Amino acid sequence: MNRLFTAAIAMSAILATYSYFNPLRIEHWAMISISVVLMAIPRLREFGIVLLPGFGSLFVYDFLRVFAESAASRVSLELVPTAETALFGIPTEQGVLMPYQYMQATLVNPVLDVIGGAFYTSHAFIVFGFALFLVLKARHTKDPADRDRIYPFLWGFLLMNLIANVIQLVWPVAPPWYIEAHGFVPPDGAIPGDAAGLSRVDEILGIAYFTPAYLMSAYAFGAMPSLHVGFPAWVTLNAQTRRGKTIGWTVTAAMSFYAVYLSHHFVLDVGGGLAVAAITYVILNSETMSDAPKRIHLWIVGLFQSRTAIS
């Protein structure tokens, strides 16, 4: 148990450092508690390990709020909209419109809004659902190959988020809703997020869900790349069957549409999300990295001095 004790001390130190810069809130403690409980129960330990990459991704994303002030002072305002207009601009009587502007002028209606509200918030559930499918399939078939598919999917998901978050940190990009509200005027310090088109769903349904939720966003200038698109793309790249890939790309296309329709992303942001998913997939399928996810899993299991497998 010495290695486990050492790892626990190291993790406590990491969390203490994390909380010094970004104080832990109830959602952090919930993830920590779930992980500890699952890890403490041998029969459930594997499921605790399965959740670690997702929880890690959430912790890393939330840490971006520490850099929100810095991002506001460096935010890229004109480059993406200018390129968007040049590449995808749509001529109209009102002039050349970017795709999100054209959608706002011609497509907005309550039906699309409500469907978009339900669909756009499903991106994390899509990843969780596919992970659950992989776990249940491995338990059913007891095939080591099915079990081994779980690890690159989950740890690759964490890697994809890390790559995207580094890009968002190094190159903060203003989303369409900011350009729509403020033009190319730089923000005066850190600003809260905005529900943009999703605020219409609140109005239609008479609720206050999306607007307050986005006000609590960790990082307002993380438009590039779009992880809302990256999530379903990552699932699709890891799907094994033709039917699964067809469904996956259809969902990814719909998510891409709503990312632009709801004024959350430019088309270029969508392309960025697809690119990050593809780059991550290539990295984890390279000769040098293909075994890394399984090695990480076995190392964590080794901390408990017993191999845990989904069975």
What order do the helices and strands follow? HHHHHEEHHHHHHHHHHH
Strand content: under 5%
Count of helical segments?
A: 16
- Percent helix among the residues? over 70%
Task: Name the poorly predicted regions.
Answer: 306-311
Helical/strand content category: mainly alpha
Tally of distinct domains: 1
Order of adjacent strands in the largest pleated sheet: 1-2
Distance between the termini: 24 Å
Number of strands: 2
Note the overall shape. globular
Strand count, sense and barrel status of the largest sheet are:
2 strands, antiparallel
Mean pLDDT: 92
Please specify the SSE layout and strand pairing.
Blueprint: H1 2-21, H2 26-40, H3 45-63, H4 68-74, H5 79-88, E1 90-92, E2 95-97, H6 99-106, H7 110-120, H8 123-141, H9 144-170, H10 176-182, H11 198-205, H12 210-215, H13 227-238, H14 242-261, H15 267-284, H16 292-302
Antiparallel strand pairs: 1-2
Could you list some keywords that capture this structure?
311 residues; mainly alpha; two-stranded antiparallel sheet; 16 helices; globular
Q: Can you describe this structure?
A:
With 311 residues, this protein is mostly helical. The chain has one domain. The chain has 16 helices and two strands. A two-stranded antiparallel sheet has the order 1-2. The longest helix has 27 residues, at 144-170. It is globular, with a radius of gyration of 21 Å. The chain starts with a helix and ends in a 9-residue tail after the last helix. Residues 306-311 have low confidence and may be disordered.
